[in-house]
Amino acid sequence: MEISDLIKIGSLEFSHNNPKKIILKPKTEFQDFISNLKQVFLIFKDHRVRYVTVNIVEIIDEKQYYLEILDDDVIKEIKQEHSISLCLNEEDIINIDNSNQYFDPIGMKVVWNNQEVAIIENFFFNGAHDVYEIKMNDGKIVLIPDVEAFVTETSLKDCYIKVQDLDQFIDI
Q1: What value does the mean pLDDT take over residues 138-143?
Q2: What is the mean pLDDT of the chain?
Q3: Is the pLDDT confidence value at 136 over 90?
Q4: Phi, psi at 77, each rounded to 5°
Q5: Tens digit of pLDDT for each residue in 48-92?
Q6: 107 with 120: CB under 8 angstroms?
Q7: What's CA 156's distance to the chain center, in Å?
Q8: Which of 163, 111, 156, 103 is nearest to 137 (CA)?
């Protein structure tokens, strides 16, 4: 497995109040299943990866949790670093919560006005929602937010998304 195979679901910070507790700040789309975490990958700034056992011990608020790491040697490393990514592989995400429909949209068709007009080339999370980078059939690259106002339907089975008002994003 490569680092590129891992999906970042949040970031960690050291809690100065309790040396065994770490503050977990999950990405919004993964908050629903954070309490089910047991084993995760930690990626440090220097690209070291550690596979550790964790426990969610307390909810601070809806955007932060206290996470207990059961591998004592890793706690020392976390204290020394300020930017640690908490990651899972896609299979683990699906196994944690089958009702959470995480998927990789790259390669999905984009349908607009009942016509295939593009393919999703890439995507990223902008802090509020995913943004799809789509390559139009004419080669233009367009960014479209994955929000109900623009993405009206997603079919994992048939591998497409339907969009509306795409003309707002296309430079004509």
Answers
A1: 93
A2: 82
A3: yes
A4: -65, -40
A5: 899 888 887 788 877 888 888 887 788 778 777 777 898 988 777
A6: yes
A7: 17
A8: 111
Q: Are 57 and 68 in contact (CB under 8 A)?
A: yes
Report the distance separating Cα 76 and Cα 131, nearest Å: 36
The answer to whether residue 39 is domain-embedded is yes
Contacts of 138 (CB under 8 A, 6+ apart): none
Asked if 23 and 88 sit in the same domain, the reply is yes
Domain final residue, candidates 96, 129, 149: 96
Same domain? 9 vs 80:
yes
pLDDT digits (tens, 9 = 90+) for 120-130: 999 887 777 78
Does one domain contain both 41 and 118? no
Strands (DSSP E) found in the chain: 6-14, 21-26, 39-43, 49-61, 64-69, 84-89, 109-112, 115-125, 130-136, 141-145, 151-155, 160-163
Q: What is the separation of C-alpha 162 from the centre of its chain, rounded to a whole number of angstroms?
A: 22
